[in-house]
Amino acid sequence: MEHSREISNELVKEVIKIRRYLHKYPEISEKEYNTCKYIRNYLNNIGIKNNVVGETGAVGTLIKDKDLPTVAIRAEIDALPINEENTFEYKSKNNGVMHACGHDGITAVVLGLAKLLSENKDKLNCNVKFIFEPAEEVGKGAKKLIEEKVLEDPKVDNMIIFHFANSDTIGMEIQKHISTATIGRVSINILGKSSHWGDAKEGIDAISISGKVLNIIDKMNNSLKDKGPFILGIGMINGGVKNNIMADSVRLEGTLRAVGDDKFNYLLNYLEEKTKILSEESKATIEVNLESKLPSVVNDYNLVQIGRKIGEDIFKERFVLGEKVYLAGDNAAYYFQKTPGIRMVFFAKKENEINYPLHNSKFDFNEDIFYYALSTIYQMILSIR
Length: 385
Fold this sequence. Notes:
Distance between the termini: 26 Å
Oligomer: single chain
Strand order of the largest sheet: 1-2-4-3-5-12-6-11
CATH architecture of the largest domain: 3-Layer(aba) Sandwich
Structural class: alpha/beta
């Protein structure tokens, strides 16, 4: 794999230092006050104009020429409510909070890019906006920043987002079209009729019916594989008041993830139809509710072609132009509905070590990826006109 001449060892070391500082002092969604302050201080020190957005987020702008198009690069800045179990020196000092999703690394790389681009401003064919988004983990950040006109003044013409994963050795992947799933938070409310278990025939057992709902869901997951990658999973069940009383209500909460809105809607309708039949058979009321919905991230064709060329140059055989869609979600989909964008994934497996997955209390990744991520995104920004 090739290195870029502009990416110095000193810059990589600085990015690692930033990442480790942020990892040490994580903050949960909508509480990223110190993180925001750190980001703004860094931008001020390298001479990039910036301001607060979304109360705890920040945006910096590098203007080459107001008549040129503007490229935005997004970094999420929030951490997760997870108690870190790593033992390295820079483990979280904030109890119960951890950067278990790589946002510390993403923010560090974008700050490194800000410094690199400001030092090479003469090479730019565009303006650059650096968006540091709060509350991504709770799905609120993008909408909030869009409302605060982060895509305007100057208007954003293209957008770049990226993530780190430790599931494979150092490499890069871009999806041809759809990159993340359409995701919905689903609740299912079952209303039966309570009675004493000594007189069971007088009641309608909501708990027993919830088991039949779970059977419907299992059959969907196993029999509808022709609908492409998807999952309908239940994460919470609540119901009942006492051991000798038949439960009159049960609430199930879960997630539906599918590739694109059409398949998502088909699966949701399928669930509603099957539970309607069960409702008629059991005499219970069963309601399926879509509590929230996040659209898919869809990559722009032209940006994919630019990313593909650069990815192949830098990563050689370790670059993949993929068709498999991740069943993860990203509220950056709301940005992409308003401006062409691209989502890239950089793989950063730590060799000869156990690699724990995203959102795990021992998550970590190989910091060697920073060199390649900086080079890839830097060259992409230089290539966009």
